[in-house]
Please model this.
Amino acid sequence: MTLPRDLFAKGTGEGEGDEHPNRGPVQRTAKTTTGNAGPGESVLITVDVEDWFQVENLRPAYPLERWDSCELRVESSTKSLLDLLDRHRAKATFFVLGWVAERCGRLVTEIHKRGHEIASHGWSHQLCFGLTTRELREDLLRSKSILEDLTGQAVWGYRAPSFSVTDGVVEALGELGYRYDSSLNSFSIDKRHGQPNGLRAAPGREWAFANGILELPVSNLVIGGQSVPWGGGGYFRFWPSRLFHWGVKRILRTDGRYVFYCHPWEIDAGQPRVKEVGFLHRYRHYKNIDGTLKRLDRFLTEFRHCGLVSCRDYLGDRARGVDWSDPLSPAREGSGKQ
Ligand SMILES: [Zn+2]
Model:
């Protein structure tokens, strides 16, 4: 299999300076190992809360105009995820789609009450490239507002649909009071993945843009200088569990953290089977879907000795802002709700 040049594999490393030449964070050179993750390592659990008909691969059959006629299944599958996380005493970040939040408000408040972070997945799940500056801003603002109204807590984080983050997204996040983005995905074969400019190594081993927005990239595995998708989603369902766990341990040894993502529809084996899209899209959407919850259970068990945390808990005070003028200064007080 031919893999792309890894955006994150080259360039400056930790503490090596400012502008990053390859527009992405470095995964420090890894030694091949099958050992367990070490102490102090964090696994960041993230869930993109959207329903089965809102997935980009199924969009030809289910444009936005059809969504209100579809069976809503996101509540029950999300609650199954919440129960699983409770059993493992794990906390997660739920990037909730604004369209879902407007129809399933009680689900959002339940996620919040059970101690997880509520963040934004935008409102319409349209790829960011396809929105005008005004539409993008409205999408980000509308989702943030509905989520904050439901929980009474400021939304800090954003994940772009299909990781389609752009320079315009980063700019709007800064203007609208967001604090971090988790949309960067170094697997460049997928052309939906965005590559915003200006990411720099920030104080405290984090990555940030010039406007202070921190970046928590989805974790991928670097093999031979190439980025192999390892952050979750369909790839979590594709690779055998033991192999997947091996890769996560390797990422943890080099990065000290691993950012995982999944979706409620990935554990919903009873969802309607869509036939109007091509074979590859159907294969990617339904592959091993009936066994995902068990895989997740194994995954959380395997890494129970790590911190299983939300992005907000992981970033803590660092999410208050980056003061580029003083590399020793960890934070600058931000604004907005607490
Ligand atoms: Zn999504």
